[in-house]
Amino acid sequence: MDSGNTAWLLASSALVCLMIPGIAFFYGGMVGSRRILNMMMMCFGGASLVAVLWVLYGYSAAFGDSLGGVGLLGDPLEYLGLSALLAEDPAASVPVALFAAFQLMFACVTTALVAGSAAGRMKFGAWMVFAGLWATLVYFPVAHWVFAFDNAEGTVVGGWIANRLGAIDFAGGTAVHLNAGVAALALALVLGRSKGWPNSHGQPHSRPLILLGASLLWIGWYGFNAGSALSAGHSAAVVFLNTAVAAAAGLLGWMLMERLRLGRSSSLGAASGLIAALVAITPACGAVSPLGAVAIGAIAGLVCSLAIELKFRLGFDDSLDVVAVHAVGGLLGTLLIGLFATEAAPNGVSGLFYGGGFSLLGSQAIACGAVLVYSFVVTWVIAKVLQLTIGLRIPEESELRGIDLMAHSESAYLNDEEPVELGAPTRT
Predict the structure, then answer these.
(1) pLDDT number for residue 21
(2) Less Cβ crowding at N or C end of the chain, within 10 Å?
């Protein structure tokens, strides 16, 4: 057991946990003042439910021996209750229980991300049921595909993307961000548009909260990415550096695009560019050079800024732009590995720009396509079944007046009486 690696993974797990309140503050600042409590409760509630499911069967489904050896789902009964992780494994460099805790945070963060597409109009109880079903039927299987590796002896079989396809996803561009972004699109389509969308938009009620949330996410992301090296060594150092410079480039890229299109750069845009770049560098952080990380971050900031317009052009109400930032950012970052990967980086493979040909790009595209289709279809079915049974939408009057009082019998601010708020937040 390596004490240095163990200490780093303990710290990284805490940093990833910090991302859950980071998402809550980020999303909470973007909604109206009479919707912030519900938005934050969706993040905390969904994450907490997934944590319990992780103990019961989620870790087994994600990291257990693949059923039938086909790489689609781990045995959900193999580590049932996680009591098997109490015994120390002398062959492991870090405690297996700690690895389970680290990956638990990924499951919690991913579920919280999806909540942004349903802001202000989904029943809290329906969200909790949705979160449990979505983690069980979507996140746990996809995590197995991407994160579960065959063991050295060949006695435990992992996921098909990680082992058979050989696609690179260092910390979750597909399993976390593309998965959550596509799920957010499916949920938004079934849930329907906010009342008054898109003409009557509620302004983000607290830009300082948005920046606070983005700051917590930025800090937590170092644990998310560098912690995925699972050791306190060279790989973690390179990943840490790549994460830092990509985030900065994304912030600048989004601000530049806003300046060119709108004549000004906003604080919300800066925060969004930062998050978009962190999303994009997540799968690529161990495969590219620092210069490649800057390129990926800048491209994400520019492209995701333009992708915001998709919801208006296509007519879906993704309240907090989960699709534009996480689906598009995750897709970009995963595909750009096929171009910018260099053999000198920890992953040790080369993309097209470094003489590696098209094979890696093809593998990355297949991984993206599989996660995209699976996540969208299964999420849509889950949401549709819930819509037809328990219902998804809150009453129209509660939606117009703000969901906090109806769902939680609380107000975030004592002087928050009226006015009526309509629609989803705008980015202007």
Answers:
(1) 98
(2) C
Provide the token pair at 19: 């991302």
Q: Please report how many Cα atoms fall inside a 13 Å half-sphere around the Cα of residue 22, on the Cβ side.
A: 22
Element (H or E) spanning 40, and its range?
A: helix 36-53
CA–CA distance, 175 with 168 (Å, rounded to integer): 11
Phi (first) and psi of residue 19, to 5 degrees = -70, -25
pLDDT value at residue 398: 86
At which residue do the structure tokens 């720009």 appear? Answer: 353
User: Over the stretch 98-112, which tens digit does the pLDDT of each residue have?
Assistant: 999 999 999 999 999
Which helix (DSSP H) or strand (DSSP E) does residue 234 occupy? Answer: helix 234-262
Angle at 217 between CA 211 and CA 219, to 5 degrees: 105
One-letter amino acid of 36 = I
Q: What is the pLDDT of residue 350?
A: 97
Give the separation between CA 109 and CA 75, rounded to whole angstroms: 23
Q: Is the pTM of this model over 0.90?
A: yes
Asked whether residue 426 carries a pLDDT value surpassing 70, the answer given is no
Nearest Cα to 376, choosing from 66, 122, 114? 114
Residue 15: both structure tokens together: 């940093």
Asked if residues 138 and 375 have their Cβ atoms less than 8 Å apart, the reply is: yes
Q: Nearest Cα to 225, choosing from 132, 113, 344, 346? A: 346
pLDDT band, very low/low/confident/very high, at 92 (cuts 50, 70, 90):
confident
What is the residue whose two structure tokens read 């080369």?
350
Inter-axis angle of helices 96-114 and 3-30, to 10 degrees?
10
List, in sequence order, every residue forming a beta bridge with 393; answer none if it has no partner.
122
pLDDT at site 420: 47
**DSSP for residue 151:** P
First-to-last C-alpha distance (Å) of the chain: 52
**Residue 165, CA atoms < 13 Å, CB-side half-sphere:** 25
Residues 6+ apart with CB under 8 A from 278: 217, 218, 221, 243, 246, 247, 250
The number of angstroms, rounded, from the C-alpha of 145 to the middle of its chain's C-alpha atoms is 16
Dump pLDDT digits (tens) for 101-159: 999 999 999 999 999 999 999 999 999 999 999 999 999 999 999 999 998 777 789 99
Question: How many residues are given for the chain?
Answer: 428
**The pair of three-digit structure tokens given for residue 101, joined into one six-digit string:** 């805790």
On the CB side of 402, CA atoms within 13 Å amount to 26
3-state secondary structure of 202: strand
